[in-house]
Known about the structure:
Blueprint: E1 3-4, E2 9-10, E3 15-16, E4 21-22, E5 27-28, E6 33-34, E7 39-40, E8 45-46, E9 51-52, E10 57-58, E11 63-64, E12 69-70, E13 75-76, E14 81-82, E15 108-110, E16 115-116, E17 121-122, E18 126-128, E19 133-134, E20 139-140, E21 148-151, E22 156-160, E23 169-171, E24 174-176, E25 183-187, E26 190-193
Parallel strand pairs: 1-4, 2-5, 3-6, 4-7, 5-8, 6-9, 7-10, 8-11, 9-12, 10-13, 11-14, 12-15, 13-16, 14-17, 15-18, 16-19, 17-20, 19-21
Antiparallel strand pairs: 21-22, 23-24, 24-25, 25-26
Amino acid sequence: xxxIAATADVADNAVLGEECKVWHxxxxxxxxxxGDNCIVGRGAYIxxxxxxxxxxxxxxxxxxxxxATLADGVFIGPAVVLxxxxxxxxxxxxxxxxxxxxxTPVGVTIEEGASIGARAVCVAPVTIGRWATVAAxxxxxxxxxxxxxxxxxPARRIRWVGKAGVPLVQDADAWVCPExxxxxxxxxxxxxxxxx
Length: 196
């Protein structure tokens, strides 16, 4: 059963999957499509037309601006911001107030299993690859490869991580997850799971 707090603001035409939870003061705008078992924390904002896969978590006060796309199993930490305006301005060059029709929103795409740490900012348009991790406070200004751990301002890859989120350990010509034992191969700065 889907649970929506009495103080949450969920648009009538937003589509929420089974077993979703939308908490106190969260706002889910029009045309949002949310998969099953998603959680939207206190005060979080999900913009018009955002799509979320199954088993996503958007923590307290995160801002997910349209047209962001979150695949299955994405984690958005507290106070994360996914931007949508490449060249933000309140006014036009002539000094007139800009309207919603004076710019074209661009989105952040987050692939399966990726995690964005607390207070990180992803500056659209960027893609965060499968199972990647963005460290808390990072500012992402370019695409993040699958399984990368990025940190800093601007964010840069500092390690590789596996599906468990734990940094991988190098073992001869492979990288190994110390938690699951899964082996990964790096070729041309791209990491992939080793064939069994």
